[in-house]
Structures are given as C-alpha cells and as structure tokens.
Design brief:
The complex is a heterodimer of chains A (112) and B (114).
Chain A (H helix, E strand, L loop, with lengths): L3 E4 L2 E4 L5 E7 L5 E8 L3 E8 L6 E2 L6 E3 L9 E3 L8 E8 L7 E2 L3 E5 L1
Parallel strand pairs in A: 2-11
Antiparallel strand pairs in A: 1-3, 3-8, 4-5, 4-9, 5-6, 7-8, 9-10, 9-11
Chain B lengths: L3 E4 L2 E5 L4 E7 L6 E7 L6 E7 L4 E4 L2 E6 L4 E6 L8 E9 L6 E4 L3 E6 L1
Classes of the chains: A mainly beta (112), B mainly beta (114).
C-alpha cells in the first residue's frame, strides 16, 4: 500500500548541530509539506513543495530548509538546532493543493 | 495570509450528546475547509471536508456547515462516543496564484465522558 513515512521517529540533538529529518511518500504526490506541532499553536507550516526542484517558505521557515530532488522525498534540515525547535514535526503530501493531505507518523525532536 | 480561529480549545461532553466546534477564517478567497482528527500520539487524519460551493456536508454522525458570508464553518458530531475523544483541527486553504497555504486552527481537545 502507498504510504508516507518519516524517520527517525524520535531524536535528541544538541544545540548548534545540523539535523535532517526524512520524509518519503510512495503515492507519487506532487505536493509535500512540513509542519511543526506545538501545544497551543496547532500545526504550523514550515516549508512546502509543489514538485521536483520547487520549494517555498511557510509561516515559520526561519532556521529550516528543504530540498526536493525527486517526487518521493522532502527532507527537512535544521541548519543549527535551537531549543526553540524542540517540537513534533509532521510531513504530509497531497495530490492537489485543495485535497486531502496525508500525514506521516511524526518525528519528536528534542534539542538540548 | 489566512488566519483561522478555532473555538473552544477544550470541550467535554457526555456520551451520546452532541459536540460543536467552530472556526472562522479571514480570507474570503479560501475555498477548501477540511477537518482533521488527531488521537493521542497519532498523526492527524482527515474526517470530513467541504468546499466553498457547498453549504453543508454529512457523513454518518459527522457534519460540517459553511457560512461564506460570515466566513465561518463548524463541525458537528452527534451521538458522541468515547472513541470520538481526540484533538480536532479545522483548516482553510487559500489558493493564491503560485502559492498555497493550508492554515490550521489551534485545535480543540474533545473529551467524551462515558
């Protein structure tokens, strides 16, 4: 079955380190997104992509970057991890911009 | 950009009662309004959605209504069951040219008391 998977599921890293979270989908969806979820803030959009070589900044993009070299993957990189980036990160994909978004299982990142 | 306000932040109901969650949005160009359910420790999953050319949509015990003039939409759950306990998120999609934003509300934690 087609799916969307994130790795790792849990990660602890130190302040200042570069961290990359992986997202892989097998639906062949053009649209992929990264959200962070924090208590009291809901889901906030970090970056999104409409297709290969396309990336766009979302509401809370500072300190994050993405790249889209193929349809299946949208890795999220924290250039220099900060404690404020401790959060649960969700990747999602959709076939069109205004259709159902399918979410990955989430990655819980702790920056110490 | 789009701004989505969601109320209440927490809601407790007795099993069998109805639950209503309300959202307002700011951009009149928004045309797609999904609702997601997130159980504890799980990923958000779509439960129902509505488009701007429709005023109401039902799926068994769940219904969503949309008032475009007032820019608000609501989720209605009837005959609530313990398994309905979760966090519910509304969202609005603003289809700007060359850009896309699915903006979420901050969520409502629904507790159904047996």
């Amino acid at each position: 079955d087609a799916e969307i998977t994130q790795s790792p599921r849990h990660k602890i890293t130190e302040t200042g380190r570069q961290v990359t979270l992986a997202c892989h989908q097998t639906w062949n969806h053009n649209n992929m997104f990264w959200y962070r979820q924090d208590l009291g803030h809901g889901l906030r959009l970090i970056h999104y992509s409409y297709g290969v070589q396309d990336t766009n900044k979302g509401e809370v993009s500072d300190g994050y970057s993405v790249s889209r070299s193929n349809t299946e993957d949208l890795p999220l990189t924290l250039e220099s991890a900060a404690s404020s980036q401790t959060s649960v990160y969700f990747c999602a994909s959709s076939v069109q911009v205004n259709t159902e978004a399918f979410f990955g299982q989430g990655t819980r990142l702790t920056v110490v | 950009g789009e701004n989505v306000e969601q109320h209440p932040s927490t809601l407790s109901v007795q099993e069998g009662d109805s639950a209503v969650i309300k959202c307002t949005y700011s951009d009149s160009a928004s045309n797609y309004f999904p609702w997601y359910k997130q159980e504890l420790g799980k990923r958000p999953q779509l439960i129902i959605d509505i488009r701007s050319n429709v005023g109401e949509k039902k799926d068994q015990r769940i219904a969503v209504t949309l008032n475009k003039t007032a820019k608000h939409f609501s989720l209605h759950i009837t005959e609530t069951q313990p398994e309905d306990s979760a966090v519910y998120f509304c969202a609005a999609c603003f289809p700007g040219a060359g850009s896309y934003q699915l903006t979420f509300g901050k969520g409502t934690k629904l507790s159904v008391i047996p």
